[in-house]
Amino acid sequence: MNHEKKSIFILGTSNNHMKINFFLLLCLLLTSLSNCSNKSSEGVAPDPQLHHGYVLQEYNENILAKKNPGHTINSAKDGPALSASGQQGSKGTKNHPQEDKAVFKKDIYHAIREIDKDVVVYPNDSKSYYNRGCLYQIKGDLNRALEDYDTAIELNPRLTPAYYNRGLVYFDEGDYWRAIRDYNMAIKLDPSFTQAYNNRGIAHNLRGEYDRALKNFDKAIWLDPEHAPAYFNRALAFTKKGNFDRAIKDYNKTIELNPDYIPIYNNRGNTYRSKGDFDLAINDFNKAISLDPEFTVAYHNRGRAHADKGNLKEALADFTQGCKMGYEPACIKLRLVGEPVP
Question: Exposure string (b/e) for 30-67, b if CB count within 10 Å is 16 or more?
Fold first, then answer.
């Protein structure tokens, strides 16, 4: 899908505004969240690039119209998530990543300063605190983000996206119980909030509550049958329950909706391997590596599938490559099964 160049506006009550480039925000956001992805040897955890989002609210009620029911700045239907390497602009030129980050930081700083002024003049404006909380959250200052979301909710207990974004903060801090509590409130206020069901399902998944997770993913898919993250995350829950056929079915659907999302192939490959379908597993790891030759976990997992087949030479080659790229589980496998291949 073609990405149009968009901008987010933080509209001040004094009719002045600060313009923030949409893609600059998103590029650095994805970079800052990438460490949350747990690329273990068994698979890839739910990826923030698909299920996290922030939106800056205007100082009026129109922003809550059904035009944007998800309150996110990215969804699987928009195509593959943007990388930190820059996004093509309207004339086909690319932003240099360092320039993007510099402009992003400058925009964030000035936007926060503008809202600081509004908070002084309008101390009871919940959306001012909400917007500043969004910016602090994107900036990575989670404590200040929580403070602003708390204040926004205190001033307006029906501000749905404030509960949702505060849930994201708790999620990123590993406090899944509090995250679930906030997603509960967001869903109570907006029962059609697809992303809130998806994220609540992920939190249940990470707490080992797989049946509850599945119910949430089912609801998200019922609300939006093309919501790729819900299929991806439901597949993880089915895998945890040992239902590999259902997991593969959901991975297939995710690929149909978002064929360039690399972790799908890695995870489906692991699922095939769990079923003993080693050739299909190797094909998926090959696909993941063809899409991203730096995706180290795929070398490790392909090596395991080769080892399962008795292809020791190919397994050692993959473990060697993974180890050279700094993936420690591959190094451990080398020490267990043999010497690196020259």
Answer: bbbbeeeeebebbbbbbbbbbbbbbbbbebeeebbeee
